[in-house]
Amino acid sequence: MRSQSFLGSLNMWKHCLLILCLISAGLLNIAHAAEKNPLIKAELKPIKNADFEQGLSHWVRTGQKRFEVLGLGIIYEAETEASEGKQSLSITIPNEGEHYLPSPTFTVPRDRQYYLSAKIKTVGPAFGSVRPVAGAGTEQFSNWVEPDQDWTTVGLAFTSTSKANVGLPQGETEYDGTKSYIELRLQVRGHGKVYFDDIRVRELHPYAPCFRVKLLEPADRPYRMKMHAMVGAPNWFFLNVGSGRLRRSSK
Fold this sequence. Notes:
The structure is a single chain. This protein has helices spanning 3-9, 14-25, 234-239; strands at 40-44, 66-69, 74-79, 88-102, 106-109, 113-123, 126-134, 152-159, 179-204, 223-229, 244-250. By secondary structure, it is mainly β. It folds into 2 domains: 1-38 and 209-251, no CATH class; 40-204, Sandwich (Jelly Rolls), CATH 2.60.120.260. The strands form 2 sheets. Strands 1, 2, 3, 4, 5, 6, 7, 8 and 9 form a 9-stranded antiparallel sheet that branches. A two-stranded antiparallel sheet has the order 10-11.
């Protein structure tokens, strides 16, 4: 492989490296405890009923197990089909389209880095994702879980900001400049049923989001490039600036 084509493969967005590190350390495996991952500073619980063990409480109407959106036929339901625990939340879309269920506004300290994850299962030709908005920086989507997939963990990193174009959390009367106000949207599209469970928010230690490499190709002879994958804890990746090792050989 020549250096020019190899260099093209290194043109990545900043979150690619972070996701690689999170996967290698087991953060995308929800069973790993926060204290076992050196990238995680703390595991937070800012979202009420984030595991849906209380049915639809705090998300739709307290005490209800099933709620239908009038005129749309979209159904929110507390289900016994769960990734962990006894219940999850499902959204059924009867017709082709896109929809989201917003969480109550929650807060986290401003100007810090976080990782939000959830487990999603899809039935039928439906897709599922999560998207934090307002004080969640760029308001990006997590990766989408494709149709007819068993429980899959999705996640995304974000930096909390001062943007506060959502309502105040219940019980609060004014905005606090030291907090970020965030709404989490459970996103669905297509038609079918999408399950959501085990939403988690973790604060991260500061990390270097990307790296760049420039390789010089000798003019007088061809050579090949190889990348050897290396697995280690997240601090290894960030301290050594990269997730692999380059080796050059010439012929």
